[in-house]
Amino acid sequence: MIYPIYVYGMPVLRKVCEDITPDYPGLSKVIENMYATMDHADGVGLAAPQIGKSIRLVVVDLDVLSSDFPEYKGFRKVFINPHIIEFFDEETSTQEEGCLSVPQISESVTRPTKIRVKYQDVDFNEHEEIVEGFLARCMQHEFDHLDGILFVDRISPMRKTMIRGKLSAMLKGKVRTHYKIKTVK
Ligand code: NI
User: Fold this and answer.
1) What kind of fold does domain 5-182 have according to CATH?
2) Is the dihedral of CA 7, 9, 14, 20 positive or negative?
3) Residues 30, 35, 41, CA angle at the centre, nearest 5°?
4) How far, in Å, from the CA of 24 to the mean position of ligand 1?
5) Mean pLDDT (the chain, rounded)
6) Could you give the dihedral angle defined by the CA atoms of residues 62, 171, 146 and 12, in that order, rounded to the nearest 10 degrees?
7) Where are the domains of the chain?
8) What is the pTM of this model?
9) 78 Cα–ligand 1 center, Å
10) How far apart are CA 62 and CA 77, in angstroms?
């Protein structure tokens, strides 16, 4: 099934999410549905709070970028209990980001280009990796969701002022998307 995506203003997007265990009820179904929801909305990533669940679970599909980045051919993964354990912040990059929970807004975000992450895969095997490039950006965006942070929290104060009108419209439910959403009002 395809879940509605929770939009800016929904309280669950601001919560710090909990780690899960393999006995989380219906986990494989939740993962399958998150992939379907992400695909339906044409996203490259989706974090559990975006479907109203305050758990540390993220799906990512970078295959759509593989014409520009061949290394992401077939890259479709679930990250369970991910945590960023180190930011190598001597080098940063700035790039436009968007988010299914903040529709119709894209803004430049500056982030470290290299991070060290730990997570569990779909079989709950532990991984610890150093990640760079677009995946590092994508992970920082998605894993931020698990700590209640949205990309618009990381833009310049001036840009934040520029989008204030759009954000307050979202709080009133005045936003159009091609996918199903849940807004505060
Ligand atoms: Ni997002």
Assistant:
1) Peptide Deformylase (3.90.45)
2) negative
3) 120
4) 23
5) 97
6) -130
7) 5-182
8) 0.97
9) 15
10) 9
Rg of the chain over CA atoms, in angstroms?
A: 16
Q: Measured in angstroms, how far is the CA atom of residue 86 from the centroid of ligand 1? A: 21
The answer to whether residue 145 scores a pLDDT higher than 90 is yes
pLDDT category at 89 given cuts 50, 70, 90 is: confident
Pick from 63, 55, 76: nearest CA to 147: 55
Distance in Å, CA 39 to ligand 1 centroid = 14
Is the pLDDT assigned to residue 97 strictly greater than 90?
A: yes
DSSP 74: T
Q: Bridge partners of 55?
A: 18
- Residues annotated as catalytic are 142
Which two structure tokens, joined as six digits, stand for 26?
């219906």
Scanning the structure block, which residue is given the tokens 């912040």?
A: 89
DSSP per-residue letters across 119-180: EE-TT--EEEEEEEHHHHHHHHHHHHHTTT--GGGGS-HHHHHHTHHHHHHHHTT----SS-
Cα(49) to centroid(ligand 1), Å: 10
Q: Kind and range of the H or E element at 30?
A: helix 27-40
